[in-house]
From TrEMBL:
<keyword id="KW-0153">Cholesterol metabolism</keyword>
<feature type="transmembrane region" description="Helical">
    <location>
        <begin position="562"/>
        <end position="581"/>
    </location>
</feature>
<feature type="region of interest" description="Disordered">
    <location>
        <begin position="53"/>
        <end position="111"/>
    </location>
</feature>
<keyword id="KW-0256">Endoplasmic reticulum</keyword>
<dbReference type="GO" id="GO:0050613">
    <property type="term" value="F:Delta14-sterol reductase activity"/>
</dbReference>
<keyword id="KW-0539">Nucleus</keyword>
<feature type="compositionally biased region" description="Basic residues">
    <location>
        <begin position="76"/>
        <end position="97"/>
    </location>
</feature>
<keyword id="KW-0443">Lipid metabolism</keyword>
<keyword id="KW-0152">Cholesterol biosynthesis</keyword>
<keyword id="KW-0597">Phosphoprotein</keyword>
<keyword id="KW-0812">Transmembrane</keyword>
<keyword id="KW-0472">Membrane</keyword>
<dbReference type="Pfam" id="PF01222">
    <property type="entry name" value="ERG4_ERG24"/>
</dbReference>
<keyword id="KW-1133">Transmembrane helix</keyword>
<feature type="transmembrane region" description="Helical">
    <location>
        <begin position="294"/>
        <end position="313"/>
    </location>
</feature>
<feature type="domain" description="Tudor">
    <location>
        <begin position="4"/>
        <end position="62"/>
    </location>
</feature>
<keyword id="KW-0756">Sterol biosynthesis</keyword>
């Protein structure tokens, strides 16, 4: 029976279950019946490890000195030293069979890989004397924002749920370990200092209610838009006052569709203008980074100039109001056609270019969620373009049309205070999004979701036609608010905006440059992917502070419409549902990405969106 080799309190290197990586751990106890050491990782995780999965720190340091040599013989000598600690090692001098020696060679190769991987981790974690001194066994492994990252082959790491890992790990036999390692070493990708994202595989966990849910959403989303717009046109838009169905022919007009196409292609021309800086997106699964031109704000300025010119030449912008439903139908038809095109082209896309969330193999599901991650025609990125241009800029143009329609219909020389607030708040939101266009590159829409019906319809129909509901409502249902009420609503909007903007900027800057001196006061939990999770600042307040700010603003947009009907509150109600669902999706992805580090983060920051509530 092997005697215990490592003492309680000793700092050693422990293998991370299911991987070939070693991290600094502290031995806390030893179970001499099961022959398992309980060790504590720097992030506070406690696991039971076999002795064969623990190595002394000196063995790593020793190898580090040798790693500069590329000589395999030298490496293998280092290997033999390390193996001498393994209970599985054959006795010295014992003759090996051919297969045994092959196995041994493979084993050697594998361990060399292990060692070099571990070295990278060790070097980047700076676990030597300094760190050893710093190690205090506290679960809170937050680090000041001054360290670089750890790395590993993300794609090999399964969902790290502590219990599962513990169970698997304690029960797995050495033989199973070996098999698994062999598989790992075959699949192994070289670790790099930069984080490596997951290589897309088949989407197993279906969201949005799976195939049935997405099939229903294909009809439900357009029906909801129709319903809301019809309701808004009614004198009494109470929920129980269901509007009559419009005649089909009244929904379509070729000229309106022509105007919509003109709008779309005008925005495409603005997008293609060679002005504005070109930036790189986050690394894709293959490590490549796409380039994006940041000129959304210029597009907005050009659009404003074009609209100004139209108004100067007496173009009746309330044409939009008069044909609002037809515009919505045109946009819906266009987004459907675009989604069909996107799906067909995605069938020819290489596997690595498919979206992690839209590759289930089920037609409806992939069609809805988007099969291809970044569909491009040459350099023209269709998803990125639709995300912020035609729909978002279209939203403020629609709002302006509503403002003019209100003045015309009600014979006003100036718009109502409610209309000014709604227009002003939403203009700020859109201008902010375009001014901070680069930030969209780190959002889920760009990094995770494919481009399919969900985003095409969302960007081109839902955003411009549903988000402008308050302004549309105010045209038909004038609401008077007093100046103090207007001031209070403005303060609310400013608070929401402040939270939203500072939270998004904090995370975006941290993701772009974790070493940014402006962020030096923030603490973060290091994760195995190399990215950190902020635990102070806004992201230490709740887990999605940007959603909180967004929801506060959504409320401020509805309040100017008064309390006569719930219809103008549709946006804030829907938005809470959307963000709660989105938060759950994001949470799920983060748990998969960051495993235990995410769990630690959740412990540190228990509330998701609303402090002390949710
Ligand atoms: P977020 O900008 O909230 O990004 C979530 C990602 O942030 C996570 O996946 C993770 O990605 C990273 N992250 C999470 N926690 C931390 C942390 N503690 N420290 C550092 N990084 C962390 O996601 P969205 O794309 O959903 O939202 C972007 C903005 O768009 C929000 O303000 C939202 O309100 C708004 N929005 C607006 C909508 C609208 O219709 N008006 C619709 C949807 C969103 P990783 O670690 O991989 O970087």
């Amino acid at each position: 029976m092997p005697s215990r080799k490592y003492a309680d309190g000793e700092v050693v290197m422990g293998r991370w279950p299911g991987s070939v990586l070693y991290y600094e751990v502290q031995v806390t106890s030893y179970d001499d019946v099961a022959h398992l050491y309980t060790v504590k990782y720097k992030d506070g995780t406690e696991l039971a490890l076999k002795e064969s999965d623990i190595r002394s720190q000196s063995s790593f340091k020793h190898r580090k000195s040798q790693s500069s040599s590329s000589s395999p013989s030298r490496r293998s000598s280092s290997r033999s030293r390390s193996r001498s600690r393994s209970p599985g090692r054959p006795a010295k001098g014992r003759r090996r069979s051919a297969s045994q020696s092959r196995e041994h060679k493979d084993d050697k190769k594998k361990t060399i890989q292990e060692t070099s991987l571990a070295l990278v981790v060790v070097v980047l974690f700076k676990p030597s004397e300094n760190n050893t001194k710093r190690y205090n066994g506290e679960p809170e492994s937050t680090e000041k924002n001054d360290t670089s990252c750890v790395i590993l082959e993300q794609k090999l790491k399964p969902d790290l749920e502590v219990k599962r890992v513990l169970e698997q790990y304690s029960l797995r036999s050495r033989k199973d370990d070996k098999k698994k390692e062999e598989i790992y070493s075959e699949k192994k990708t070289l670790v790099a200092v930069k984080p490596i994202e997951k290589v897309p595989t088949k989407t197993k966990e279906l969201e949005f209610g799976g195939r049935i849910g997405t099939f229903m959403l294909l009809f439900l989303l357009p029906a909801t838009v129709c319903y809301l717009l019809l309701m808004c046109k009614q004198d009494d838009p109470s929920l129980l006052n269901v509007p009559p169905l419009p005649a089909l022919e009244s929904l379509w007009e070729g000229r309106v569709f022509g105007v919509f196409l003109l709008w779309f292609f005008l925005q495409a021309v603005f997008y293609l203008l060679p002005i504005g800086k070109v930036v790189e997106g986050l690394p894709l699964s293959n490590g490549r980074k796409l380039q994006y031109r940041i000129n959304g704000f210029y597009a907005f300025i050009f659009t404003a100039a074009a609209i100004g010119a139209l108004l100067y030449f007496q173009f009746e912008l309330h044409y939009l109001y008069d044909h609002f439903m037809q515009f919505a139908v045109s946009a819906a038809v266009f987004s459907l056609a675009l989604s069909i095109y996107l799906y067909i082209r995605s069938l020819k896309a290489p596997e690595e270019e498919l979206a992690p969330g839209g590759n289930s193999g089920y037609f409806i599901y992939d069609f809805f969620t988007g099969h291809e991650l970044n569909p491009r025609i040459g350099n023209f990125d269709l998803k990125y373009f639709c995300e912020l241009r035609p729909g978002l800029i279209g939203w403020v143009v629609i709002n302006l049309a509503m403002l003019l329609a209100e003045m015309k219909i009600h014979n006003l020389s100036v718009p109502s205070l409610s209309m000014i607030l709604v227009n002003g708040f939403q203009l700020l939101y859109v201008v902010d999004a375009l001014w901070n266009e680069e930030a969209v590159l780190t959002t889920m829409d760009i990094t995770h979701d494919g481009f399919g019906f969900m985003l095409a319809f969302g960007d081109l129909v839902w955003v411009p036609f549903v988000y402008s509901l308050q302004a549309f409502y105010l045209v038909g249902h004038p609401t008077t608010i007093t100046w103090p009420v207007a001031a209070a609503i403005t303060v609310l909007n400013c608070v929401g905006y402040y939270i939203f903007r500072s939270a998004n900027s904090q995370k975006n800057n941290f993701r772009r440059n974790p070493a940014d001196p402006k962020l030096a006061n923030l603490k973060f939990i290091p994760t195995a992917t190399g990215k950190g999770l902020l635990v102070t600042g806004w992201w230490g307040f709740v887990r999605h502070p940007n959603y909180l700010g967004d929801i506060i603003m959504a409320l401020a947009w509805s309040l100017p419409c008064g309390f006569n009907h719930i219809l103008p509150y549709f946006y804030v109600i829907y938005f809470i549902c959307l963000l709660v669902h989105r938060e759950a999706r994001d949470e799920h992805h983060c748990k998969q990405k960051y495993g235990l580090a995410w769990e630690r983060y959740c412990q540190r920051v228990p509330y998701r969106i609303f402090p002390y509530i949710y």
